[in-house]
Amino acid sequence: MEPLCVVPARRALVLVIADKADVLHENGHRFRSERLDLRAPSVVRLRRYVRTPYRHRAALSRRGVFIRDEHTCQYCGRSAENVDHVLPRSRGGAHEWENVVASCRRCNSRKKDRTPEEAGMALSRAPFAPRPTFWLLVAVGGVQPDWDDYLRDALSTS
Ligand SMILES: [Zn+2]
User: How far away, in angstroms, is 155 Cα from ligand 1 center?
Assistant: First the structure.
């Protein structure tokens, strides 16, 4: 199994009712109508295997960089507000995961259009592209406890 996407519970329930998915976890909520009383699923597994040829790389976003770097300046460890291009864009640096880090305003303005070496600043770790399913975390901003087992690989950063 691999995580595919996050959908509203109502949509997951429709898949279950249509026999297209099985419930692995419920979240304790219920959908009630006059004739139906259904427990809301929290994790469902599709019955048919779905190929996911898309998104070999998580899309780069400002929010994603902050989550990957834990909102911490990668130069000094303070709270980060900026995204810094390690090799500045003005010098051909790419706008990609491996060349962007979260940084605080101070470090960002101190570094200017220089490389970390030129500025005498050290990165706490080399920036990296997160695993493809990292976007799940970015999309929902957080993870329900009963998703942990299914997302462990997706969310690890090593
Ligand atoms: Zn800093």
Answer: 25
pLDDT band at 158 (very low <50, low <70, confident <90, very high): very low
Distance 108 CA to ligand 1 centre (A): 7
Q: 109 CA to middle of ligand 1, Å?
A: 9
* Residue spans per domain, the chain: 1-53, 58-145
pLDDT of residue 117: 96
CA of 78 to the centre of ligand 1 (A): 5
Q: How confident is the model at residue 29 (pLDDT cuts 50, 70, 90)?
A: confident
Q: Specify the pairing of strand 21-32 against strand 82-85.
A: unpaired
